[in-house]
Write a structure and sequence with these properties.
The chain is an alpha+beta fold. The protein has 7 helices and 10 strands. The chain has a 3-stranded antiparallel β-sheet, with helices on one face. A 3-stranded antiparallel β-sheet has the order 6-7-8, with helices on one face. The protein has a two-stranded antiparallel ribbon with strand order 1-4. Keywords: Membrane, Transmembrane, Transmembrane helix.
Length: about 350
């Protein structure tokens, strides 16, 4: 009987313990989960003591870390720094005012170093150093280059700020040979491999990805000087264009005259050759006719039996008179008499 009571007592105690344990589990288990947004990194921090454990960096999601722990959050997405009308002296000692904006990201692998150095108060430190880097980079350019080489200046500012904030250590997962990669994906020139980097080599433990040079306020006298220079250049270009036009026109006129003279020469040569051919044809025709005429006379003399030069001359004379337009023939019963009568 006593054993039965003891067993019931033990069962009751066990049930109470299990019930309390279940209640505590129901209460404490949800409290043991902590949540980070997708745009956050976090270190585990004990609620009761405030101690931060930086051995592991957590990314976005729900994590089981215990009821006495919470996350100390860091912003993992792009963070912006804007500068408005920063007064800077250029290489030629004139003041310009720069408006620019940059984006940077925290480097997850270096978040422990960032926390140990600046805790969560890093943003203003980064902004101040970025501003100094911009001022130092601008001083190597003169005011004229701000008008003509804006893209070069922006690129130089980007690398100047990036070197100051990111240090000389290669960024995580950067690429050394990638033709289609974006600028921020490439490793900086002569950067130091990460396994060999010291804390000082890593700058301010952030990655600068973009810098946009938005506005440049140049002194009025510089703009006027540049405008006058452009006007002079345009006038000079106009004069050169007019000179080139005159040269082209003269050359064109020369070529036209040359072609015209050549055409005239060809025409005159053709006419001369035509006249020569006509004359040669006429001479040849006369010679042929004369030869045929002589052959015909010889045949006539032979057919008539004329052998005496006197008879041949008489016949030639009669033929000549026959062809004379002013000769008229009359015939009587006994004699053929030739008279020269005018028409």
């Amino acid at each position: 009987m006593a054993d039965e009571k003891t067993a019931k007592l033990i069962g009751l105690v066990a049930s109470i313990v299990l019930g309390i344990g279940g209640i505590l589990l129901i209460i404490l288990l949800p409290m043991s989960f902590s949540y980070l947004d997708f745009y956050e990194y976090g270190f585990v921090r004990r609620r009761t003591t405030g101690k931060v454990y930086t051995d592991n960096v957590y990314s976005g999601g729900r994590h089981l870390i215990g009821p006495d722990f919470e996350f100390k959050e860091f912003y993992a997405a792009a963070q912006f720094v804007s500068f408005y009308h920063i007064p800077i002296f250029t290489l030629d000692n004139l003041e310009v005012k720069i408006t620019a904006e940059l984006q940077y990201f925290l480097i997850k692998e270096d978040l422990k170093l960032l926390h140990d150095s600046y805790d969560v108060y890093y943003h203003q430190i980064i902004a101040n150093n970025a501003k100094d880097a911009i001022k130092n980079s601008i001083t190597k350019f003169d005011t004229d280059e701000f008008i003509s080489n804006r893209s070069v200046i922006q690129n130089d500012l980007f690398f100047g700020v990036r070197q100051r904030l990111s240090g000389k250590c290669c960024l995580p997962n950067c690429k050394t040979d990638c033709k289609n990669c974006k600028q921020w994906e490439m490793c900086d020139k002569n950067c130091k491999p990460r396994p060999l980097c010291t804390k000082e080599d890593k700058g301010f433990f952030v990655e600068v990805r973009y810098l946009e040079l938005q506005d440049i306020d140049i002194p009025l006298q510089v703009n006027e000087r540049k405008l006058l220079s452009l006007i002079r250049d345009l006038e000079k270009e106009k004069e050169e264009s007019v000179k080139e036009e005159m040269i082209v026109r003269k050359n064109s006129e020369y070529e036209v005259a040359k072609i015209t003279n050549k055409a005239k020469e060809i025409v005159e040569n053709a006419k001369a050759q035509y006249s020569l051919l006509i004359n040669q044809a006429e001479v040849n025709a006369s010679r042929i006719i004369e030869n045929i005429h002589n052959d015909g006379l010889q045949k006539m003399f032979n057919d008539l039996g004329l052998t005496s030069p006197k008879h041949k001359s008489s016949l030639n004379y009669i033929r000549s008179l026959k062809n004379h337009e002013k000769i008229k023939y009359s015939i009587d019963f006994n004699t053929l008499i030739a008279n020269t009568n005018s028409k």
